[in-house]
Amino acid sequence: MTKLIKRAVVIGATGMVGKELLKQLNQVESCEHILAIVRKEDESLKQYTKVNQLEVEDFLMLNDEDVADFTHAFSCLGTTIKKAGSKANFYNIDFEINAHFVDLFEGTETHYVLVSAMGANAGSPIFYNQVKGELENHLKHSNLAYVSILQPSLLMGEREESRTLEGLTQRLYQRFSHLVPDTFKYKPVTAEQVAHTMVEVAQNQNETLKIYDNLYIQHAK
């Protein structure tokens, strides 16, 4: 049973996908209130009339009362090992904080939407993919009413932080994008496409659990 987005809470709201998601949620007619959970207030988010910000220095301190009565929860939270500074810090952000956020909605009717990654696999020899897969498994075994998992490929767009390899790949893709067929499953997607898919599946998914691959994100209507 689908349900309208009326009250949405977003973690990872100040990242590339998170900001685009807030922009699109703010335009959803049925959506009355959006809560962006942030470490410090972001001035750029004040342009969205439906968005309020909750400042929390340590996201592991979030509790049930902070996120009560939301129809939808969205996680765009993620980093890189380079930015995190170590594998341990990366694991804390990409798994521990995300898993804690998931647990706050267990036993509720909230529809949970996660941005994961193509290649997510708890058994992968690649640490990044391994952690993403572990988080997906945590969602799959949690007591959540509805779960949507998006697995995008390389994300195109401007980030606040520099990611050297990602930036190089983006430039190469922009140069040769006309040669890449729409059926290529690894084709990069934009933050706008990912956010659009998040909003679309949040309003239309009937299944309790569904995974949306990169091809779906490319062509989401």
What is the CATH first-level class name? Alpha Beta
Spatial extent as radius of gyration = 17 Å
Major β-sheet annotation: 7 strands, parallel
Q: How many structural domains does the protein architecture include? A: 1
Physical arrangement of strands within the biggest beta sheet: 3-2-1-4-5-6-9
**Number of helices in the DSSP assignment:** 7
Oligomer: single chain
CATH superfamily: NAD(P)-binding Rossmann-like Domain
N-to-C order of helices and strands: EHEEEHHEHEEHEHEH
- How much strand? 15-25%
Mean pLDDT equals 90
Number of strands: 9
Organism: Acinetobacter shaoyimingii
Pfam families: NAD_binding_10 (PF13460)
Protein name: NAD(P)H-binding protein
InterPro entries: NAD(P)-bd_dom, NAD(P)-bd_dom_sf
What is the structure about, briefly put?
This protein is α/β, with parallel strands linked by helices.
Write a concise keyword list for the protein shown above.
globular, Rossmann fold, alpha/beta, seven-stranded parallel beta sheet, NAD(P)H-binding protein, 221 residues, two-stranded parallel ribbon, single chain, NAD(P)-bd_dom, NAD(P)-bd_dom_sf
Structural write-up:
- With 221 residues, the chain is of the alpha/beta class.
- The protein has a single domain, classed as NAD(P)-binding Rossmann-like Domain (Rossmann fold, 3-Layer(aba) Sandwich), CATH 3.40.50.
- The protein contains seven helices and nine strands.
- It has a seven-stranded parallel β-sheet with strand order 3-2-1-4-5-6-9, sandwiched between helices. It has a two-stranded parallel sheet with strand order 7-8.
- The protein is globular, with a radius of gyration of 17 Å.
- The two termini are 20 Å apart.
